[in-house]
Automatic annotation (TrEMBL), chain A:
Protein name listed in UniProt: Putative membrane protein
TM segment ranges: 12-39, 48-66, 190-209, 230-252, 360-382, 388-408
Domain YdbS-like PH, residue spans: 68-148, 408-469
Keywords attached to this entry: Membrane, Transmembrane, Transmembrane helix
Any Pfam family the entry gives: bPH_2
InterPro entries reported in the protein's UniProt record: UCP026631, YdbS-like_PH
TrEMBL record, chain B:
InterPro entries in the record: YdbS-like_PH
Record bears the keyword Transmembrane helix: yes
TM helices/strands, residue ranges: 32-53, 65-84
Domain of life: Bacteria
Record carries keyword Transmembrane: yes
Protein known as: YdbS-like PH domain-containing protein
One protein family per Pfam: bPH_2
Domain YdbS-like PH: 87-162
Keywords recorded for this protein, A-Z: Membrane, Transmembrane, Transmembrane helix
Amino acid sequence: MEHFSAPQRQSAIGVVVMFFDTVQQYARALWPILVLWIFRFNQMDKMMLAIGTVAVFIAIGVVAYLKYRNFTFFLDEAQGEFVITEGVLNKTKTTIALYKIQQVNIKQSLLQRLIGVYALDVDTAGSNEKEVSVKAISHEVALALKARLLDNESRKPIGPSEETVETHQAKPFIQISMLSLLKIGLTTNYIRTLGVLLAFFATLYDNVLRFSNQGYLDEDQFTGYIDRALLLQSIGFFLLVLVAVILVINVVRAVVRYFGYTVARQSGSLLLSFGLFSTKSTIIKPEKVQIVSVTRNYFQKKMDILELKIKQATSGEREESKQAVEIPGCNTAERDAVLKLLFGKIPEQGAVLLPNFRKLVFAIVTTIVLPLGIFLGVVALAEENLLKFTWIAPVYAVFAMTLLYFGYRNYRLFIADDFIIKQSGAWDVKREIIEPQKIQAIAVSQLFWHKNADIGYLTLHTAGGAIRFQLGDFTTIKQYVNLWLYEIETSDSNWM
Amino acid sequence: MENFTNETLDVAQLPKFEEVQMTPLHPRYWRVVMLTWGLIFLVVLLAIVFGFLFSPDFRPVAPKLLVVVCASIIPIVALAYTAFRKKAFAFRTHDVLYRYGLLATTTVVIPYNRVQHVALHEGWLSRMFGLATVQVFTAGGSSSDIEIPGIDKTQAENIKQLLMGKIQKEL
């Protein structure tokens, strides 16, 4: 068995891997220049080009060799650390405590297969990208190193390997009915569907015009038809159709995506399965949950439905787990049941932190005053034919003002002993719930002109994303930060 | 939960992160910053000179551009100096603090029991001045990692040892 106790290099053949890596890296950085050269290929001196190319490849070769020389790794048994040193001009030394390592993956790309070496990636919790990667070692060394890296008892395995799905055993405690899905379809995603529709019709119109330009259709007749059709229809009717189409699309989407949604309890975890054509199953472990958000708008409140979103800690390359898991169309009781299972109790609201009025003022300036100022300025400077559009300005102002006002009024942070809840949103009111123990890092920030007003920003980073609260009372924020730090630092509670 | 207690916390008595005496970056780091900017200026100036010499189209614009570049030196140096002075760090018993920012002053706090791993960077310029950068990683993603530049090489090694020691203790 190898020891790895002294710094060692990769396989000598690894220079080749380094070489192609460096080529790729430079090509990515310099591709605009390369493209330019290709277009000018004919005008260039072929001799110079050949010499230049050779020189560049020699230079890259030297860099690759130096990279190979300077890349070393070793295991510090006494400290329980894996240490990697790399870099030619800028040197980096990365130290990873062995018990923090979550995954070690041995991989082989095509190039690596051709020259018979393996890459070994080391992953710790949290960040999506792999922490370190040893790019060229022999299979024996890779296996031995992997064994040594994972050979410590305190390591708590997480990750997908343990997630065995046994669907048939669990008894669902929430079943989302067809009616709830209909309600969800009727009350969500108006804007998104509108955007998709607009994009769809824009491309369609574009294609039809192109089609007609090729002589299959008489263009005048076609556009004339559209004009007449538009004249015939009142705009109101058109809007009605549009709304109907959006609603139908939303309902179909909700039904196809979430048909037969069941939530079951399975040895302390949540087991979700849903889907009309293909059933998807997901397991949620309460200890891995970082942020739970509950979203509800006015209509949904009247119908007693809401949407739950659960963000979990990410580990390793499981990029898809970064995406939140959605439970659409629960009612209040079901929400409480899910929250109780995830958090052990129903999150209470606690003390309220409100934003300063400047948040509203700032939002008004950036979304109403500035754009309208530019718009009206353009209208004033331009010809009269733009003048008939000035009615847009007051309509937009009233609409935006209403949204901003409600957004401001709903914006608040609830702080209880065990929960922090951020509420935001104008129409869809969203509540993001985190536990102070899940906080990874806290950032407080203050613009220098907010010093006298004593207001500032708070960002709470978790392994499932950050929660940011803007322009709250800074003294209060700092007090809570000290409290949270105290709580995090005096307990060993597991955040995932 | 065996020795669980639940007294009322006197929040006012908790240690205050905002009153911690922060360590500024090493004075030699200012030279690194200046040299970096000096090199950038040098490249820009060389580009202008080359343009002036070899491109007739560019010739009339070159003097104006030169004036703009020269005029921007003082504000850039002033801003760089403010940014340099604002940066400071502190290592408490249980967490690391890093402060930075020009318009907004931001303080990031990472408790040691949330640190995933540590990296020590030595840029080629920094290395000439015996300085290093300490980067602390958490599971909160790149936005919550902190990178403290301009620390004396030996001190940076010590800090790394300290951090790794703290991580190991959390076992």
